[in-house]
Amino acid sequence: MQTTSTEVLKSYIFNEPIVVDAARLQPLGPAAIFMQGTKRMPGTAITKSVVANEPGGRKREEIFVDIIEKISVIFSSSGYILTSEIDGTIQMKSYLTGNPEIRLALNEDLSIGRGGESANDYRSSYGSGAVILDDCNFHESVRLDGFDMDRTLALVPPDGEFPVMNYRMTQEFKPPFHINCLIEEAGHLKAEVILKVRAEFPSNITANTVVLEMPLPKYTTRASFELEPGVTGQRTDFKGANKKLEWDLEKFVGGVEHTLRAKLTFSQELHANIIKEAGPVSMTFTIPMYNVSRLQVKYLQIAKKSSSYNPYRWVRYVTQANSYVARI
User: Fold this and answer.
1) Does residue 120 lie in a domain region?
2) CATH of the domain at 220
C-alpha cells in the first residue's frame, strides 16, 4: 500500500528535532520532562527525526524513549464497548557513545498477568496494580533483576532503534473518542446521516490525522455534506466507486465534539432496512503525548562517564488507532 499523506510521510523525513522552552508549554505530567531539567519535547515532535548534530559536526549525545500504543475498540450500536485491546511498545533510540548502562523505571503499581504463579515468568501477577498488562516480553539486552521489586529495567542499549518491551492489555480503559451515528429516512429515495464524535481526552491534548469512514448502501447515488459553521481543517467526500463516506479532521482538540450531517440520495426504493446496509463507522487517528493504558516511564537514568556527562533525554507518548469501529 502507498500513501501520499503528508502527516504520515513526516515520520520518514529526517530533520532537526524541535526543542521548545518549557516556559512556553503547559505541564504534560512528570514523565514528559527529561530534557536536562529545562526543556521538553513538544507534542507534535513525535513525528520528527531523532538524529541531530552539534555545531562542528559532532554527534549529539541523546536517547529517546517512545511509548507507542495501538488500540482496538469495537462499540455496539448503543455505544457500549464490546471489545477493547492495547498493543504497546516501549521503543528506544540510543545515540550515546560508549554504551553506558540505562535504567528505566515504570509504574510501581504495574501488574502483569491475571494470576500466574512463577516469579520469573513475566506473564505472572504481582500485586493488584492500577495498570494491569495481560503479558509482555523484553529485548534480549534487558536485565530484569529489579523488575519484581520496583519495576525497573536495566540495559546496555545497542546503537540505533530497538523495542525494549512489547505488551498487551485488555484491562478496561477509557477510549479516546466516542462515536454516535444516527440514520433516518428523509422522504422518497432519501436519508440523512448524523455523525457525532467527541474527544474524551484533556483539552491540552490534540489528535491529528483523524479520519472517519462509513460504508453507505450500495444504491446510494449522491451525498451532500453539512459541517458545523466556522470549522476549519475538515474535509468530506463521497467515494462513489465503493459507496463510502469519508470525513477528515486535520486536528481534534480534547473535550470537543464535532458533528457531520450527510444527506443521501438513492437510486431505488428502500426495500430493506438502510441501517443494516450501512456502516460500521471506522476511525483512524494519532494522539501525541497521550496514552490510554496509563503506563508511564517514571525516570530514565544514564550511568555517568564523568561529572560533566549529561546527555539529552526524551520521553514521548503516542496513541494510534489499530481498529476503532462503531456499529450502527
Assistant:
1) no
2) 2.60.40.1170
Same domain assignment for residues 83 and 160: yes
Give the pLDDT confidence of 258-293 residue by residue, as tens digits: 999 999 998 876 656 788 889 899 999 999 999 999
For the chain, the domain total comes to 2
Range of the domain at 199: 177-286
> Would you say residue 222 lies in a domain?
yes
Strand, coil or helix: what is 171? Answer: coil
Q: Do 224 and 192 lie in a common domain?
A: yes
Judge contact between 134 and 173, C-beta under 8 A. Answer: no
Q: How far apart are CA 236 and CA 216, in angstroms?
A: 14
Provide, for the chain, the percentages of residues in helix, strand and coil under a 3-state DSSP scheme, each rounded to the nearest 5.
10, 50, 45
**Residues 167 and 223 grouped into a single domain:** no
Q: What does the block give as the cell for 191?
A: 436519508
Q: What tens digit of pLDDT does each residue of 98-145 get? A: 889 999 999 998 998 865 333 344 444 444 447 899 999 999 999 998
Amino acid at 198: R
Rounded Cα–Cα distance for residues 90 and 65 (Å): 7
pTM metric for this prediction = 0.77
The DSSP line for 82-138 is EEEEEEEEEEEEEE-TT---EEEEE-TTEEESSS---TT-TTS--S--SEEESEEEE
pLDDT digits (tens, 9 = 90+) for 152-173: 999 998 888 999 999 999 988 9
